[in-house]
Amino acid sequence: MGPQTSYVDLLIIGAGPAGLVAAYWASEYGLDARVIDDKPDRVTKGHADGITCRTMEMFDSFGIAGHVYEEAALDYQIRYWRLNAEGRLDRAQSINSQAAGVSRFQQCLLSQGRIEELLEDRISRKGRLRVERDVETLGLTLHKRDDASAETHPVQVTVRQRGGGMGDENVEIVRAKYVIGADGAHSWTRRQLGLAMRGEQAPHVWGVIDLVAVTDFPDIRQTCVVCSEHGNLHVVPRERGMVRLYVQLDGVSLGAAGLRSEATLETILAAARKALHPFSLECARLDWWSVYQVGQRIADRFSVGGCVFLVGDAIHTHSPKVGQGMNVSMQDSYNLGWKVSGVLKRQLQPHVLETYETERRPVAESLIAVDQETVAFYAARGDHVATRDLQCFRERHYAFLSGVAIQWYDKGSALVYAPSAIELATGIHLGRRMPSYRVINYADARPTELARKLASDGRWAVILFAGDLRKAVQLRRLEETCAALVRSRLLRAPGSGKLVTITASPRDGLPLTGLPPLLYGGENGQDRDYDAVFSDEPDVYGAFTDVYAKCGVDGEKGCLVVCRPDQHVGFIGSLDDVPSLNTFFTGIFRDS
Amino acid sequence: MGPQTSYVDLLIIGAGPAGLVAAYWASEYGLDARVIDDKPDRVTKGHADGITCRTMEMFDSFGIAGHVYEEAALDYQIRYWRLNAEGRLDRAQSINSQAAGVSRFQQCLLSQGRIEELLEDRISRKGRLRVERDVETLGLTLHKRDDASAETHPVQVTVRQRGGGMGDENVEIVRAKYVIGADGAHSWTRRQLGLAMRGEQAPHVWGVIDLVAVTDFPDIRQTCVVCSEHGNLHVVPRERGMVRLYVQLDGVSLGAAGLRSEATLETILAAARKALHPFSLECARLDWWSVYQVGQRIADRFSVGGCVFLVGDAIHTHSPKVGQGMNVSMQDSYNLGWKVSGVLKRQLQPHVLETYETERRPVAESLIAVDQETVAFYAARGDHVATRDLQCFRERHYAFLSGVAIQWYDKGSALVYAPSAIELATGIHLGRRMPSYRVINYADARPTELARKLASDGRWAVILFAGDLRKAVQLRRLEETCAALVRSRLLRAPGSGKLVTITASPRDGLPLTGLPPLLYGGENGQDRDYDAVFSDEPDVYGAFTDVYAKCGVDGEKGCLVVCRPDQHVGFIGSLDDVPSLNTFFTGIFRDS
What we know:
Two copies of one chain form a homodimer. Chain A is built from 14 helices and 26 strands. The first copy, chain A, is of the alpha+beta class. In chain A, the strands form four sheets. In chain A, strands 1, 2, 8, 9, 10, 11, 17 and 18 form an eight-stranded mixed β-sheet that branches. In chain A, helix 1 (17-28) runs parallel beside helix 7 (325-344).
């Protein structure tokens, strides 16, 4: 008797941050999915820690931003230390860690292990999906219609639950419709697929150490770049009073296969002390340490056969210096997960999966480019790195580093409607994530972040900028829009779309019951959703966001904006242009 | 063999909101305490629901404000409906539910049962204190030194765990040092003490009903006062789409002992429909209903023998109309609980317990007075209640209704230092709760609500407005203040005090390590608390709170403010005046 065979819609290999975000979607869509991980336990120390504001927005859409914020070290200001004219280490400049107004969240730092824990907790609150640990992968085969199940479950992965023997009773053949390989820089999945990583190894070796420090260095609780005559040091504040130090280790090389042949904890601490001189540095508690040499590589392809996809470090490796690794990796899965889920749920046409690589490869390429520049910038020694250079450098890359500016429109994507009437919403960028502003609930006057209505629940959002409803002609237009929307395939497929209305006219102008019933009463007009219509007016205390102006939308005529389940804007059109919306949807949704 | 006798420091009778706030303090101080309740289960429906912004601040200091806010219906605006010139019910005016700037929290509504649940969850996270339910109280005796244990445990309460028989094995004699009676309007504890309630019964009968309504009344999700020709109706939005209706029932009287002799659910619904005419009103789901006649009474005394105290409805009853009942009741316990705990922990002198009644009786009296006026105001029929009257009425009582303006200075209290130099902080009111503003963390630039440092952890807070530390003379002054504070009894007793420093000079002016080590390094100067020193400067994006100006404190010289564990200001003085602070403390703290 051979090993047992089981069938699953989606198999996720690797339960790091990228794998867990894929699992989040699988759980939210109620997929028949499994998540396996090679390691017996969750990572608890070290590794990644930087969280961009866009990742915070994603966490918020999962409902876990509050927990992250409560524990994380928030990063407001970078301080730059260099040798002054007298040759003493001195504070040269303070610059903002994050540009003003990009997001309602602040970038912050929290250990990868804790983030994984929060993601797992969130997933387990929703459904039955749980991480299976200590599961070894033995082989991966892509079947080509050689048996009946190859049509539906083309990927075969042989796995073994460790802890038993090598006998068949611990081996299992998993047949999956789709596989997501989220198994890191040394990805087993990637190797099975025979994909190569292209790129280079930078010459510099850095040490990294997480510790509780006792020091008279006054900026130990904020991000610092210290350029001393004895090499460079980066200070990164962390949760629970910890601090992470990145220390440039010159004259140290890594042994074969990245073995820590020369550098030790003592080497790193000694280099850190030299760089911080004349300030003291004592280690009250060591949490983790490592040594790395930067490899900047990107995978040939991100998927094979339209059914095995790679995410995160499995397709791009780089230095930890730009604080992007975990973010870009999770955003890979955030992009891919809802698409695979939509296809498996028979909502989306399978060809939309091609947009994963068209949308994410440019991000990976930018990441490598920014990282190369960053590594070179920081590897430059001492005081010749001018303060102004640092500021310019940060500003040049800020849009990318924040994560909020990423868009795919100019690269083309079936999931972004290129002929959109972008001139109707000049403050909203087609392809980019929808910005969130404070709107006023029509029914109870409560100020509400628009983002709350765009939670990652798997639904597309049709945002109706309804314009000025005190004008009878505009109200009639809106009624026609609603009539057209009722017939659209988005709202016909249950659970795939949601309506959010933002009026330019104030709540006092027209009672909620004067609006088209579809907007607050469901398709039959009989339900009551008192959390679906909002107005763009001052709150009761007079604070005014002016969402129409910020979004560049005409306050009389309004417009129609459609956000994908990942909050990215897929369509912009006039209220009359539901036909174009239907054209867009016809290209991506399945007939039900 | 008689019943078993057990000994406890504090016995709390009643596990409603007032009893649980007392239990919160007992748990936070780690007291040997018990909470018993007559009922077999927690209330799950109906009863109180209004939460003032001050109560939200208290919840925030317990760490549960986020949970409450997430579930509650937030109350931003009151709409006033009356008959228009054509005799039709019409929206006459909208006024703010809460005056601008009183609190960082908004008043809201959530059922009493859910609040009790959140309080119990919070208490159980901290220690071992749990509510014992279905426990009947059989007798209460105040011992007068007739046995050895009367000295230490003067109160004897005989209780019986229900569910067993009447045999001795289910009966227990509890000897307590202190008892808090939080057992409601029909308080058993009060009757045992032979205390009387003084006051009157208003003639009006009201029905109250919690339901999910289907209606075309457009303001069903916000607070409304509806004055129709068919009597008055109040609409109060609630959590989970529910709404509470208060309906004036004219011609209906209550039977003996408040029996619901005439009014039924149908009576109430019919009266509500008449008042709302011509709008429809259907009940999609009934949650709870009741009928009440307003009794406005206050107890003769709030305590007996210096060891049995009454809180909440046990000492004041009134109508639910001002939305104060649960708030004032919890604030009673919030005031009493830390005092009893401090005495039991041998930090405070027993005479401070007298301040409970001196501080809370004026609040109860104001409550009755406001309630009488409110009931009369709303009982007035139809359109002769002018809109302007409503606005004036709300404005006149707003300070009281918000809960934030309550202060005890003018009534005198051993726990408020009357000779304080109040002119040094003209924006802070001696005796009133300390306002919270956003300050900037000195170590990491993170904006922080001052209130977070004043969490209800049982510690007194010494807030050092340190002034401008760029001036050498001011820094020297601060050093002298610190030297004097180290010798003060507050900081000598471990766990009884905490220091919070707010500089007027910016973070860039002086590194944290340039400040007196006491402020961030503990008494020995060797610890590191990076969350104890703040500056009053713009955040990195330029937003400036100007805390010194808001508090009316001189930006050069600063001052010293001391908050009690309940966040009320007990002392205001100059940085040099630690001697006065010691005088204040000598009168209330025990020698340790």
